[in-house]
Amino acid sequence: MKSLTMDIITIQILSILTNLALGLFLLLFTRVQKSYKAYQFWVWSHFTLAMVYVFLGLRGIIPPIYSIIINNLFLILTCNFRIVACLQFFYQKVSLKSLLLIDTLFISLIFYFSIVEDLIIVRTFIVTSCILLTYGFLAWILLKNRDKENSEVILFSAGVFSLYLVLNLLRLAFAVFNPDLIMFNKGTLFNSVYFTSLLILEIIWVTLFFTLTGIRNRQEIREAKEHFEQIFKTSPEAILITRVSDGKILNLNEGFMNITGYSSEEALGKSPLELSIWKNPEARNRMLEELREKGYCQNVEFELIKKDKSLFTGIISSRIININGEEQLISITRDISDRKEAELIIKEKNMELHELNVTKDKFFSIIAHDLKSPLSGFLGITQIMAEGSEKMKLEEFHSLGKSLHESANNVYSLLENLLEWSRMQRGLIEFNPENLDLYFATEETLANIHEFSNQKGVQILNSIPKNTTIYADLQMLNSVLRNLLSNSIKFSNNGNLVEIGFDGSDKNNNRIFIKDSGIGMKKELMDRLFQMDQKVTRRGTGGETSTGLGLLLCKEFIDRHQGKIWVESKENTGSCFWISLPISNLSALAVP
Length: 592
Known about the structure:
alpha+beta; 5-stranded mixed beta sheet
């Protein structure tokens, strides 16, 4: 009997050491598997179970009431830790409220039947019921979470729990019918079997727990792989996996096929260089150099080529990965051609907005300054006539009338250009090109400026051959010729010659020139002509004002004809303005 008692004490000591060892081992394991909170609670369950055996052995050393209460509190705590660990292992919610309610009930009963009424049989019944409920609940959780992969392990684990339940049911039966057989300090065969079985079951359960963890890890790896494959296959971006050593394509997704037009059969086993995807292979080499230095690159723009040879802009992010000891490159390419096109449209709209603002500023500048100047002169002359008319001689009236006429003519010319330019900006001037006799169109313009040329003493020569036909809008052409001829007269001296002629040497374009022998201009001034954002103000040889608006209007009209206008000039020598209107594709000009 004494030897049996020693055997029970030995088993209890082994149980303490085993649970401490298992707890320490699991504690080290949790440092690796930090994502599983379940391990932390299972660690504490082994430590608290070790304390249960410690206080069982201390019942002959410390007052029994203390060892009984502390021993049973650690046992209840062990049950709680294992329930929480099992629930968290399967990602299920823990009801702390329910646990606390059940704990309060068992603790209250243990306190009552330990302090108020010291009934060991009732306490044994209460503790055994707590163990039965705990491991029955654990078996139910395991069976509830059984699947194809863990089915065998779960069933075996449930069988282990069932064996433990049977032992506790026998213990419960003996507590009712033969209490002496289960007294912890009695060296009975049942106690030896019971405590030895608990030790074996603890080791078996930890082994099964690790087996379930391995199955869980494999499931999560497989799910992560399937998730990656789904993202890989369904992503709208082009994804490639290539071998770093030779650039061969190992895998690709539908996004790559949709964007580039290559099928998987055409691309697999070949490199992007062999498929001629890169517009500039040197750009690819630079990207590979960056990848070798940093291991990755992000959001780099490249021009790429589709199977149908069309270009698209791709933004590429790549990273070098190591699979089975082989360096591979995973690249994600997003087609941003639409975005680049939208950016270009925005840029063009911004330029148009800038031009509109410049146009507005130019318009206000002309109104505020250039129109004010001739009107001020006009008002000054009329004031002199109004205040001193009684004392003036006829010659003075004649001189003032001439000045008045010049001022009115300047105002009229400026207003005419302003109105035409304003209508052009608003799209109100219709474009109606037709076959015209250039000679007669020029004569009509010369008749309108004849008086101005006579006043300046400037001779005009029309050297355009008769029956010269061009395709142009008559109203726009007249406006261009009128402005250019007026400028030539304005910057010519008395006795100078202004010539308008035709150059038919170009087979693709009709060229008209207006040449004068006036004061000419510097290159800096020529560079500012025909530009909306440049202010060009210069007085003519007779003091005439000039705003540069007429030349802007000329350029607008010539651009509408898809033609060109430019100037050749040298200071104190004269200027020659050229107009070039296309001969071919004239039908396209008729489109408004």
